[in-house]
């Protein structure tokens, strides 16, 4: 089960990256053909030769970039050129020399791997100076050799003769601007001999290129912009494919999903970390809930249900949702459920099938509701489907004020907007494969066809009652009657239909969008310990260090160390004693006094151990040496922070 | 210049694309003089510089006589050795392009090159090409004064003449020079760089002659041709000249019909950065700390005002993890102060006011109230 999800997530990542990788590959191929065009026509002779550069804007979620670049590098090596190099800013800190070295190193090693029969390559490894002249010479020899080699099937003829050298700068902002400028200046002098191509990985925005490179340098590059999917879109598609689907039985509940999404939005925008959090939730669920053996595909789950052990059946009977179900049954049924194991297994199978159907109906209805409410002003039910999903998971969504507000706004919708939204709903209902969804689809199709009919008679013409000659009193009476009738005027056919459609949607919502807690056996599929997840994902190292130091029993579980609150036994490690003592001091701590106290507290006091403990405390960041007074250290932490 | 000892060093300076290296190289090639030309940008180490000087003058084996990381005296010694084997009948010339980078290399390099003739006792002249005036080169310890030559910028007429020489083979030179006239009229006020102008001419000429090819105008109707090309040149000034779009994209745009071409968004149009929630607050706090004087902090962050931000954090009961280093990597925060002050690192906010106002708007924090400059 877990392996299946993991593989699926990997494929999803690849698919999401595919669009941008395809456009990058197209760009690189186009640039290569421009290079091949040669200097035949007048335009090519006259214009400046620029280095084709792709500026890839990936977003601030830097942990996700590695995967993208690895993917890109692999695809390039397979289909375009073997000469691909990725450089990171940390490797090229000082000079552009390092960049060239990496370039040559990788290219040379690629060469050695590719043609083992060409052992007599003339690269004199000892005197390889990192200069572009050497690279040019090497490139010429390699391409001459390549043209005699066997053909690469997926590469065009142009590329075979002159495969481009692609340099990928993984994190552009972190590069020293001077180094980058020098590198570009050097490369542009050799652009006619070496078909170089750059890919800039940008985290913030493309205007950083203009900040880092002056015009004299950026005029040597032909920069084209490629934007990847924004992180929120990425997240939305991951949630759509993995959580809002009946394909995977494992589901996080509202609080857990809220924790994961808030870590994403507030901390790092990293989809990779979100997926890791989801995997952690999956593991925790299977680890802590013994009945999760039933959390798998329907057929396998039904088989497992018949094979449940006695212990498991007892656990099943003690689940709160199952107990609620039992209470709803008649007395005869209740007795059977509490005593007969076989009956319980049968009922369990039925409930699992019901749970499956519930999920299918739920997601279809959720998507319909989202389509209708996603374009309302001020987004009462949230702009993204995940917000709607979380509010549905937590309680009955039809009891929310926002739901009432959304329904009111829908009652005021115009005809064409409403019909187009309802048609999209019909599409979604078509894909739901349960009986109830099919019935709903019939009803909706009915309604839609009524919308298309021409409008019938509308309002009664108001001018009827005023034809006759009347006196003042009669006129007043007729006018009052008309005013009353106008208040309860007959609605147009469209408005009647609109109300009918909205009632239909409302009934769908009330019957299918109940939170999962209302379904028996939901604990099998839903993971709900958000506190555990939060503790694992939002690590607080400071708290754990302080716990370890003030209460060593918590981690060491040594009986000698068990101490009542506040005190520290003599057998505790030195660093704990020293820590406890320093808590009682003020801002500046006198080392000699501290040493004396330590000698009195510790069982085996020696100065060497004291000094070791103090330096460990300094390393952990609790104290710092200070020049304000000799033989004093200053304390850095206060209170319980 | 041929057999007598020539002047040891010459310094040529002038702006970009004033013809310095072009003239020198043409002269040296025409007169078939032995020379070596090196661009100091490529020479990240002095060894590379020496190698690239020796290789063209003395053949490919000469560089192997140099040790792995040679010093100046090694270079002089090897040079003398090679001279003995291949004595010069003519003056040798060493051309050093982007010579201002020599100042950043070892301190003895520049004075040595100025006096190279004396050091190696050979008939060699060093020509230094640079965009910076000689006064900024002169080392403190004094040196041999080279011959100074200034290449002034081209005037408009000269640019017209030079650019008109590369006329397109299928069209008359008069037509081309009319085109150059129009081009200069639009671009001369912002750009005098010959290379750049030639590049722009190449890109836009096809659009210029489009009406001619379509048969709508004759060659002599310069006014109509001008009317056709002028809006495109104006657009080019804002896009391809500034490298907002690449030249390839520009050419594609020109080829598309007017109706189909949508606006290609230039690079600087995309200035928006999506940041996580806590990072936005960190950045706002950093901006306030960087740009408000310290004494005003107390005034702004009194009990009711400043606690707004703090209580947000306390309510959530979570510590924001240290994101300062990641903001530093994105170049939104710069480290100020020495690297070895690890216990008290200082950071400064490196974003513009517009950027920070946009960010504070997304978190509904009224930034302007807290900025000292806006009181």
TrEMBL record, chain A:
The protein's assembly and partners: Component of ORC, a complex composed of at least 6 subunits: ORC1, ORC2, ORC3, ORC4, ORC5 and ORC6. ORC is regulated in a cell-cycle dependent manner. It is sequentially assembled at the exit from anaphase of mitosis and disassembled as cells enter S phase.
InterPro entries: ORC3 (IPR020795), ORC3_ins (IPR045663), ORC3_N (IPR045667), ORC_WH_C (IPR040855)
Organism for this UniProt entry: Oncorhynchus tshawytscha
GO MF, one example: DNA replication origin binding
Domain of life (superkingdom): Eukaryota
Record keywords: DNA replication, DNA-binding, Nucleus, Phosphoprotein
Pfam families hit by this protein: ORC3_ins (PF19675), ORC3_N (PF07034), WHD_ORC (PF18137)
Family note: Belongs to the ORC3 family.
Gene Ontology CC terms, in alphabetical order: DNA replication preinitiation complex; nuclear origin of replication recognition complex; nuclear pre-replicative complex
Domain Origin recognition complex subunit 3 winged helix C-terminal stretches: 542-602, 606-638
Domain Origin recognition complex subunit 3 N-terminal residue range list: 11-294
Function according to Swiss-Prot or TrEMBL: Component of the origin recognition complex (ORC) that binds origins of replication. DNA-binding is ATP-dependent. The specific DNA sequences that define origins of replication have not been identified yet. ORC is required to assemble the pre-replication complex necessary to initiate DNA replication. Binds histone H3 and H4 trimethylation marks H3K9me3, H3K27me3 and H4K20me3.
Subcellular location: Nucleus
Origin recognition complex subunit 3 insertion domain: residues covered: 307-529
UniProt-recorded name of the protein: Origin recognition complex subunit 3
Any coiled-coil regions, as ranges: none
GO annotation, biological process: DNA replication initiation
Automatic annotation (TrEMBL), chain B:
UniProt keyword terms in alphabetical order: ATP-binding, DNA replication, Nucleotide-binding, Nucleus
Cellular localisation: Nucleus
One example of a Gene Ontology biological process annotation: DNA replication initiation
Function: Component of the origin recognition complex (ORC) that binds origins of replication. DNA-binding is ATP-dependent. The specific DNA sequences that define origins of replication have not been identified yet. ORC is required to assemble the pre-replication complex necessary to initiate DNA replication.
UniProt GO cellular component terms: nuclear origin of replication recognition complex
Protein name: Origin recognition complex subunit 5
Pfam families: AAA_16, ORC5_C, ORC5_lid
Entry annotated with the keyword Repeat: no
Signal peptide: none
Organism ancestry: Eukaryota, Metazoa, Chordata, Craniata, Vertebrata
Domain ORC5 lid: 176-243
Subunit-level organization: Component of ORC, a complex composed of at least 6 subunits: ORC1, ORC2, ORC3, ORC4, ORC5 and ORC6. ORC is regulated in a cell-cycle dependent manner. It is sequentially assembled at the exit from anaphase of mitosis and disassembled as cells enter S phase.
Keyword Mitochondrion: no
Family per similarity comment: Belongs to the ORC5 family.
């Amino acid at each position: 089960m877990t392996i299946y999800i993991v593989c699926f997530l990997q494929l999803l990542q690849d698919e999401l990256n595919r669009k941008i990788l395809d456009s990058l590959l197209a760009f690189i191929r186009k640039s290569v053909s421009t290079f091949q065009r040669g200097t035949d026509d007048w335009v090519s002779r006259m214009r400046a030769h620029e280095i084709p550069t792709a500026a890839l804007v990936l977003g601030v979620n830097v942990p996700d970039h590695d995967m993208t670049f690895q993917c890109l590098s692999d695809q390039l090596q397979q289909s375009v050129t073997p000469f691909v190099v990725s450089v990171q800013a940390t490797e090229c800190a000082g000079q552009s020399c390092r960049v060239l070295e990496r370039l040559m190193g990788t290219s040379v090693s690629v060469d050695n791997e590719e043609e083992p029969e060409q052992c007599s390559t003339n690269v004199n490894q000892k005197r390889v100076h990192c200069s572009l002249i050497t690279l040019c010479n090497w490139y010429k020899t390699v391409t001459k050799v390549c043209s005699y080699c066997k053909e690469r099937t997926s590469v065009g003829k142009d590329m075979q003769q002159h495969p481009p050298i692609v340099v990928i700068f993984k994190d552009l902002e972190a590069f020293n601007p001077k180094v980058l400028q020098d590198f570009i200046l050097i490369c542009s002098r050799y652009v006619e001999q070496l078909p170089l191509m750059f890919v800039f990985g940008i985290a913030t925005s493309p205007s950083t290129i203009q900040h880092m490179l002056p015009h004299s340098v950026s005029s040597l590059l032909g920069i084209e912009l490629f934007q990847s999917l924004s992180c929120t879109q990425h997240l939305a598609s991951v949630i759509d494919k993995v959580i809002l689907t009946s394909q995977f039985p494992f589901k996080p509940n509202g609080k857990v999903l809220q924790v994961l999404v808030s870590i994403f939005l507030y901390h790092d925008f990293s989809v990779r970390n979100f997926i890791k959090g989801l995997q952690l939730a999956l593991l925790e669920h299977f680890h802590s809930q013994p009945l999760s053996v039933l959390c798998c595909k329907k057929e396998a789950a039904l088989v497992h249900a018949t094979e449940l052990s006695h212990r498991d059946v007892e656990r099943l009977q003690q689940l709160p949702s199952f107990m609620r179900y039992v209470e709803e049954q008649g007395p005869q049924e209740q007795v059977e459920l509490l005593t007969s194991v076989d009956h319980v297994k049968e009922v369990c199978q039925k409930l699992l099938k019901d749970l499956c159907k519930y999920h299918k109906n739920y997601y279809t209805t959720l998507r319909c509701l989202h389509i209708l409410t996603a374009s309302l002003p001020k987004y009462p039910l949230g702009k993204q489907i995940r917000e709607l999903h979380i509010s549905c998971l937590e309680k009955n969504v039809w009891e929310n004020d926002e739901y009432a507000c959304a329904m009111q706004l829908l009652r005021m919708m115009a005809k064409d907007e409403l019909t187009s939204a309802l048609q999209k709903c019909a599409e979604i209902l078509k894909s739901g494969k349960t009986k109830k969804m099919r019935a709903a689809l019939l009803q909706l199709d009915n309604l839609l066809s009524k919308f298309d009919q021409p409008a019938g008679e509308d309002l009664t013409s108001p001018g009827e009652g005023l034809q006759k000659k009347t006196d003042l009193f009669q006129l007043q009476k007729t006018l009052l009657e008309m005013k009353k009738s106008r208040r309860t005027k007959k609605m147009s056919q469209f408005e009647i239909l609109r109300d009918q459609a909205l009632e239909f949607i409302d009934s769908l919502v009330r019957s299918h969008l109940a939170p999962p807690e209302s379904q028996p056996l939901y604990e099998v599929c839903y993971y709900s310990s958000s506190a555990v997840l939060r503790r694992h994902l939002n690590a607080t190292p400071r708290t754990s260090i302080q716990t370890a130091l003030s209460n060593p029993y918590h981690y060491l579980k040594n009986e000698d160390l068990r101490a009542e609150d506040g005190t520290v036994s003599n057998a505790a490690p030195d660093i704990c004693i020293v820590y406890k003592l320093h808590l009682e001091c003020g801002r500046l701590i006198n080392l000699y006094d501290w040493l004396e106290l330590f000698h009195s507290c510790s069982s085996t006091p020696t100065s060497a151990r004291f000094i070791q403990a103090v330096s460990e405390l300094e390393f952990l960041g609790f104290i710092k040496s200070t020049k304000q007074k000799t033989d004093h250290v200053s304390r850095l932490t206060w209170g319980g922070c | 210049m041929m057999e007598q000892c020539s002047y040891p060093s010459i310094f040529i300076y002038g702006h970009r694309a004033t013809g310095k290296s072009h003239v020198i190289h043409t002269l040296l090639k025409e007169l078939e003089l032995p020379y070596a030309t090196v661009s100091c940008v490529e020479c990240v180490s002095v060894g590379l510089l020496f190698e690239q000087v020796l290789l063209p003058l003395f053949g490919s084996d000469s560089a192997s006589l140099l040790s792995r990381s040679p010093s100046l005296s090694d270079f002089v010694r090897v040079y003398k050795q090679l001279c003995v084997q291949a004595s010069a009948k003519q003056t040798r010339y060493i051309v050093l392009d982007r010579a201002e980078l020599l100042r950043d290399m070892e301190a003895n390099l520049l004075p040595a090159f100025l006096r190279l003739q004396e050091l190696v006792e050979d008939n060699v002249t060093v020509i230094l090409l640079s965009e910076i005036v000689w006064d900024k080169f002169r080392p403190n310890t004094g040196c041999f004064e080279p011959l100074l030559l200034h290449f002034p910028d081209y005037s408009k007429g000269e640019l017209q003449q030079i650019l008109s020489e590369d006329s397109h083979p299928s069209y008359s030179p008069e037509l081309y020079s009319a085109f150059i006239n129009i081009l200069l009229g639009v671009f001369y006020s912002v750009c005098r760089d010959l290379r750049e102008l030639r590049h722009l001419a190449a890109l836009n000429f096809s659009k210029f002659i489009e009406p001619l090819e379509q048969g709508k105008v004759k060659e002599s109707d310069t006014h109509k041709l001008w009317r056709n090309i002028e809006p495109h040149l104006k657009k080019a000034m804002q896009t391809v000249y500034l490298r907002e779009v690449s030249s390839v994209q520009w050419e594609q745009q020109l080829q598309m019909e007017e109706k189909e071409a949508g606006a290609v968004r230039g690079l600087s149009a995309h200035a928006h950065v999506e940041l996580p929630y806590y990072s936005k607050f960190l950045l706002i706090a950093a901006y306030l700390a960087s740009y408000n004087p310290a004494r005003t902090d107390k005034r702004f962050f009194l009990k009711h005002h400043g606690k707004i931000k703090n209580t947000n954090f306390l309510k959530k009961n979570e510590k924001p993890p240290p994101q300062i280093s990641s903001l530093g990597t994105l170049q939104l925060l710069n480290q100020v102060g020495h690297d070895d002050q690890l216990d008290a690192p200082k950071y400064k906010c490196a974003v513009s006011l517009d950027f920070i106002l946009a960010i504070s708007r997304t978190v509904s924090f009224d930034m302007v109230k807290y900025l000292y400059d806006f009181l």
